């Protein structure tokens, strides 16, 4: 049943993804399905009636009534520490959605697609990568994923095996510490990193950039400076500085 667009939902599985992030699987009876790249609003209600609402991207897509979220803990945050540390299978919460029609990927486009993620911004891009693989379109997509260190990468195993498994090619960018034997640069995504890993501007890719607000703005500026058309850059800002 929905009241004001909110559906009662139940957490069915939680799995640690990194020291600060967890993947949650949530069953939403009556869920209408979602497109790759969409998000939901999650509403929590405390015993005293206090409510908090936050947005979370879907790592899943398609018709299943069980959706997947991945939440990274913001220290001192109101909602994310609860979702990462405390929520258990069987717990109830409310879900509204799917939301967002702009930051969405659909099969059938002729242009190459560049996905660029910072931190938990990888979640909707994983949904897109999964959808592209399922549609047999993975060869036209690339993912550049910026994380502090290898252990901070949500979906690390899936993304490490992606290209070999017929999925999207993934390039890692580490901002603080790289794995042993890493020969690439360490630091923020810059023009050099984009030149090396991303589809070049003359291929006219559609670019999806997602992550903390500062990351998204920095990457979008660097893309435009390299010659990418601003109207071909889609952004999703998760908040923060
Ligand atoms: C469309 C959309 C999709 C999102 N998808 C995801 C997702 O898939 N996974 C996920 O983990 N989060 C996602 N977020 C962020 C999420 O909605 C919350 O903002 C985040 O979990 C922090 O909530 P909080 O209640 O813990 O912190 P708050 O109590 O709201 O904030 C505490 C402090 O942290 C800062 N802050 C808030 N968000 C961030 C951030 N993302 N990075 C850095 N600082 C921040 C605030 O400015 C504030 O100073 C998404 C946001 C949007 C708008």
From TrEMBL:
Domain FAD-binding FR-type: 4-105
SUPFAM superfamilies linked: Ferredoxin reductase-like, C-terminal NADP-linked domain (SSF52343), Riboflavin synthase domain-like (SSF63380)
GO molecular function, one term: oxidoreductase activity
Keyword Metal-binding in annotation: yes
Superkingdom of origin organism: Bacteria
InterPro entries reported in the protein's UniProt record: Cbr1-like_FAD-bd_dom, FAD-bd_FR_type, FNR_nucleotide-bd, MRET, OxRdtase_FAD/NAD-bd, Riboflavin_synthase-like_b-brl
Pfam families linked to this entry: FAD_binding_6, NAD_binding_1
Cofactor field: FAD
Keyword vocabulary terms for this entry: 2Fe-2S, Iron, Iron-sulfur, Metal-binding
CDD domains, per database record: FNR_iron_sulfur_binding_3
Name the record gives this protein: Ferredoxin-NADP reductase
């Amino acid at each position: 049943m929905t009241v004001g667009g909110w559906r009662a939902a139940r957490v069915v599985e939680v799995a640690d993804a990194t020291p600060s992030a967890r993947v949650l699987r949530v069953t939403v009876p009556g869920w209408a399905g979602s497109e790759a790249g969409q998000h939901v609003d999650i509403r929590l209600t405390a015993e005293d009636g206090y409510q908090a609402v936050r947005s979370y991207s879907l790592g899943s897509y398609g018709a299943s009534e069980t959706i997947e979220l991945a939440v990274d803990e913001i220290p001192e945050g109101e909602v994310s520490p609860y979702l990462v540390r405390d929520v258990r299978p069987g717990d109830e919460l409310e879900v509204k959605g799917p939301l967002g029609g702009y930051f969405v990927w659909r099969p059938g486009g002729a242009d190459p697609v560049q996905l660029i993620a910072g931190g938990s911004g990888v979640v909707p891009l994983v949904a897109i990568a999964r959808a592209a693989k399922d549609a047999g379109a993975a060869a036209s997509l690339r993912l550049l994923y910026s994380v502090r260190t290898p252990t901070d990468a949500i979906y690390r195993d899936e993304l490490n095996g992606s290209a070999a498994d017929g999925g999207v090619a993934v390039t890692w960018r580490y901002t603080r510490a790289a794995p042993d034997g890493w020969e690439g640069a360490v630091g923020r995504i810059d023009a050099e990193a984009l030149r090396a890993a991303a589809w070049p501007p003359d291929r006219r890719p559609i670019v999806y950039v997602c992550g903390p607000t500062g990351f998204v703005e920095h990457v979008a500026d660097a893309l435009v400076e390299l010659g990418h058309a601003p109207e071909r850059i889609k952004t999703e800002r998760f908040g923060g500085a």
